[in-house]
Amino acid sequence: MQLNREAIIQQFPWLKELDRPMIISNDLDGLLAAAFLHHHLGWRIAGYYNCTTLWLSPIALEDKADLIWIDLDICQPAYPAVGHHILTLTHETPEPLRHICNPNLLAGIGAHTFSSKYPFSTILFLLWLHEIDVRRNLLARLLILHADSVWINLQHYYENAHQWQQRLSEYNWKWLFNQVDTEQFECRIQDHLLPRLERLGGMQSTGGNLSRHLRLQGSQLRFNPDWEEDIALGLWDLVGTYLKWSPPTAPGIEHRIEGRRQTAALPSVTDENFPDNLIQDRIFSYAITSRDRINFTHLDW
Questions:
Q1: Contact at 8 Å (CB) between 143 and 122?
Q2: Which of 123, 183, 240, 255 is the most buried (most CB within 10 A)?
């Protein structure tokens, strides 16, 4: 099943709107997506969410009804969102999730077909949707492929990645993914990208698969908006230099809401009304992380 850009944008017309406020995730994928949307559509960062804590600026408090949530699956029907986690048990998209532009929902991928889940990042989904190619520069390419460890996913889940390249057709995947499963590519990650990201701080191991050639650990850049704003600014400086996207302005955070994140067996929180039962229980966001496990967050806003 191929996904159709025009049909997706017709379903979610706000994807093309200008000057929208956004809440983003506080990791590399969210920061890249924010820079892309700011550069091409003039969107403004209004806050951050890491699935436990919500950081809000005055923009978020004043324009709450206009917020769009980026690299985040928010199970609140009033909040348009772009995410890529598994959210359903089957191929059907229930009404409470129809506000989320998520490739798994669009392709009918749920917990029942977990091994077929979307293996890329939010920034790659946005690039495909808007038909924007990555600038032909080594560091630009490495930055994009490191978000959510896409290059490691390509090495370990080649067949699924190939199927998704076919679903997301008419894009230059061949150049972007060229020779990712080689020692030479891993040397470039190790020698050119990782030292730059490590100098910024905020690098964390993600566990999971090691790279196939140099046994590099998957890693993610994350920052705490309370005291590590310089990490985000440093990353956007790299984005401006190598991707040539104009950096967004970091918001002045004035309000913080603490949520409570839990992990549970999937059958214990699902019934015939799923995910309505989660919304009724004041679950703000969730993700199905395996065929039988789910993470979810209680948060009042």
A1: no
A2: 123
Token pair listed for 152: 């490691």
The answer as to whether 273 is a domain residue is no
Phi-psi region of 246 (alpha: psi -120 to 50; beta: other; left: phi over 0): beta
Domain membership of residue 259 (yes or no) is: no
Check whether 207 has a pLDDT greater than 80: no
| Residue type (1 letter), 184 | Q
Burial of 283 (0-12, 13-18, 19+ CB in 10 A): buried
283 domain residue, yes or no: no
- Tokens, residue 274: 């799923």
Supply the pTM of this predicted model: 0.97
State how beta strands 203-210 and 217-221 pair.
antiparallel
Q: Long-range contacts: 134-139, Cβ < 8 Å, 24+?
A: 134/176, 134/243, 135/242, 135/243, 135/244, 136/175, 137/242, 137/243, 138/188, 138/192, 139/192, 139/193, 139/196, 139/238, 139/241, 139/242
Classify residue 96 by its DSSP letter: G
In which domain, by residue range, is 195 found?
Answer: 5-243
Cα maximum dimension of the chain: 51
Query: Domain count of the chain?
Result: 1
Instruction: Name the residue with tokens 């999971």.
Output: 208
In percent, the amount of the chain with pLDDT more than 90 equals 91
Q: How far apart are CA 174 and CA 186, in angstroms?
A: 18
